[in-house]
Design goal:
With 154 residues, this protein is mostly helical. It folds into 2 domains: 67 residues; 73 residues, no CATH class. Helix content is 77%, strand content 0%. The protein starts with a helix and ends with a helix.
Length: 154
């Protein structure tokens, strides 16, 4: 099975919808320097589906940064910058470090900084899968708009 971005996002979204905790754990591993362990967590979530399991491996081998971008931009929603503004406002009041860490990671120029920034932003909303999905939608559809909201807080 050859992979394409739309197919990858559809399968990654299935995983987000069925086990958001494991997806965040995979991003945490990647963020902490254990990129292969994070990838294995995601890939193993599709071990029952060999064509997808193999497509993940192929996509990851073709470019780690692109694979992680697909992970943090897989969403079943359309982008709502207004919704993101409301949720980042709440997050700034209740979990300021998650917003600061997200902004710092996104702008520090490190490889996979976009994915690391999204990890911190979503980690601050771990309790709310719908908000995490909304953040991923805006990462996919209006990345600049999402990060303008985050940057306005820091």
């Amino acid at each position: 099975m050859a992979w394409d971005d739309a197919g990858m996002r559809a399968n990654l979204l299935w995983q987000w919808n069925n086990d958001a905790g494991d997806m965040l754990n995979a991003l945490r591993e990647m963020t902490n320097g254990f990129e292969q362990r994070g990838f294995d967590l995601i890939r193993n979530g599709q071990q029952h589906n060999i064509p997808v399991f193999n497509a993940y491996r192929e996509c990851h081998a073709a470019g780690n940064e692109h694979f992680w971008y697909l992970v943090v931009s897989a969403s079943g929603q359309g982008c709502s910058l207004g919704g993101c503004q409301t949720n980042v406002d709440w997050q700034w009041i209740n979990n300021r470090d998650s917003v600061r860490n997200a902004q710092n990671a996104y702008t520090d120029g490190r490889a996979r900084g976009r994915a690391v920034g999204m990890y911190y932003l979503m980690e601050g909303q771990r309790h709310n899968p719908g908000v995490m999905d909304g953040y991923r939608a805006c990462m996919r559809d209006n990345e600049a708009g999402l990060w303008a909201i985050v940057n306005s807080k820091v």
